[in-house]
Amino acid sequence: MSTLQTERTTVKRLAKRGNYDRETIVAILDEALICHVAFVLEGSPVVIPTIHTRIDDTLYFHGSAASRMLRSLRNGVETCVCVTLLDGLVMARSAFHHSMNYRSVVIFGKATEVTDRDEKLRVLAALVDHVAKGRSLDARAPNEPELKQTLVLALPITEASAKIRTGGPIDDEEDYTLPIWAGVLPLKLMPQPPIADERLAPGIEEPDYLTNYRR
Amino acid sequence: MSTLQTERTTVKRLAKRGNYDRETIVAILDEALICHVAFVLEGSPVVIPTIHTRIDDTLYFHGSAASRMLRSLRNGVETCVCVTLLDGLVMARSAFHHSMNYRSVVIFGKATEVTDRDEKLRVLAALVDHVAKGRSLDARAPNEPELKQTLVLALPITEASAKIRTGGPIDDEEDYTLPIWAGVLPLKLMPQPPIADERLAPGIEEPDYLTNYRR
User: Is residue A1 part of a domain?
Assistant: First the structure.
């Protein structure tokens, strides 16, 4: 059993879809462009989408120092972060066995604020590179006022699980003879041709990490 | 001011991205294939991805009657549901102004179980049709044991907000002369060619709602 499995990360429903391998979990976190962060605010659940990045065994996310979410989380409250990649629509013969192919990760833990200046700069570069690898080398780095306005939070990836479904539909045996099309419609998040900013300075080439964008 | 705006749905950060129009909110809910449902379990936040559908001013989601999430929510506890559509990566000249183009919706409220048999069947058909329009007419309808195993929850869309970002990067005025490429990389969730199940009965044509899949 992997160290990322705990009582509350153990997948109860459809347990065979559960996975606690660090490599599997990390690959899903790295491919996903956004995560959903949940926390409790005045007794009520709140969930918000945001950008994340991962360095070693820590998940980072960031935002305005004025953000209600980040200010709540900075105080070391419990959070739950979920990342979901949608891979396809599963069409079974029965409505009941319709499903989706997906890869998701759930992490539980307490986030802490990154206050060390060097670490903060390193994480902010990683956040830009998470979106487009190599981009942080091109972009103008944060200046002091920008650094102050940005809150960076770190969540240890120590209590996590992945849930994965792949493959075709699984119908009840007696339904296989029904005259109903069954199979999978794969889905892919595809980059379209980059659109240059109207005010782009002359003579600047489109960077390769965008022309040939891949996740 | 629309009726969907309340104190807690009011977008505080980047308030100009906030939108409370019913039409706008409904369009995002209808386009998204999945939502993230947050709730509080034994004092801690939990967030889980699931399929949803909308009928009129109600959001529905479903799952196994044995699901921990659904059993918690059935008891009328507070929930927060978030739907996010990712439209593009926004590359600014400064790392600080990097962003994403997105359309998201957050709904707050209490879910209740759908117990009426006819309503439950109507919602289950709508859930299948949400994924692929027209599919519920082809698929074998739920039988009695399947109906019993499925829990359907209804969340009124009365307290909600959308948050939308579109367009190119917005840099600080002094950064526009920097020799850095800036613009948007649009992203689209694209259907790939359908893959028929290995055990597909002979002579069954691929349905048009999959061949020409669109959201």
Answer: no
Cα separations (Å) of A43 from A40, B99, B140, B170?
A: 6, 31, 42, 37
Whether B79 and B39 have beta carbons less than 8 Å apart is answered as yes
Query: Which residue in A14, A17, A80 has the most chain B C-beta atoms within 10 A of its own C-beta, making it the best mutation to test that interface?
Result: A80
Report the candidate in A173, A186, A189, A176 with the shortest Cα–Cα distance to residue A90. Answer: A186
The answer to whether residue B190 sits within a structural domain is no
| Position B3 pLDDT exceeds 90 | no
Structure tokens at A96: 């009941």
Asked if residues B84 and B147 have their Cβ atoms less than 8 Å apart, the reply is no
- CA nearest B213 in A: which residue? A185
Rg (CA), chain A: 21
Whether A3 shows a pLDDT value over 70: the answer reads: no
Average pLDDT for residues B6-27, to the nearest whole number? 84
At residue A56, what are phi and psi to the nearest 5 degrees?
Answer: 50, -120
Query: pLDDT per residue over B61-101, tens digit each?
Result: 998 877 777 778 887 889 999 999 999 999 999 999 999 99
Residues of B in contact with A198 (CB under 8 A): 168
Which of A9, A48, A101 to mutate: most B Cβ within 10 Å?
A: A48
Number of domains present in the structure of chain A:
1
Give the pLDDT confidence of B26-74 residue by residue, as tens digits: 999 999 999 999 999 888 999 999 999 999 999 999 988 777 777 788 8
> Which of the pair, B120 or B73, is modelled with greater confidence?
B120
Contact check, Cβ <8 Å, B46/A191 = no
pTM: 0.94
* Structural domain for B48, as ranges: 15-171
pLDDT at B164 > cutoff 50: yes
CA angle A83, A87, A91 (to 5 degrees): 125
Q: Which amino acid, one-letter code, is at B17?
A: R
Q: What burial class does residue A184 get, using C-beta atoms within 10 Å of its C-beta: 0-12 exposed, 13-18 middle, 19+ buried? A: buried
Q: Which amino acid is at B70?
A: L
Task: Tell whether B137 is covered by a domain.
Answer: yes
CB A154 within 8 A of CB A111: yes
Which CATH number covers residue A157? 2.30.110.10
Please state the rounded mean pLDDT for residues A83-106.
98
In a domain, B185, yes or no: no
pLDDT of residue A12: 72
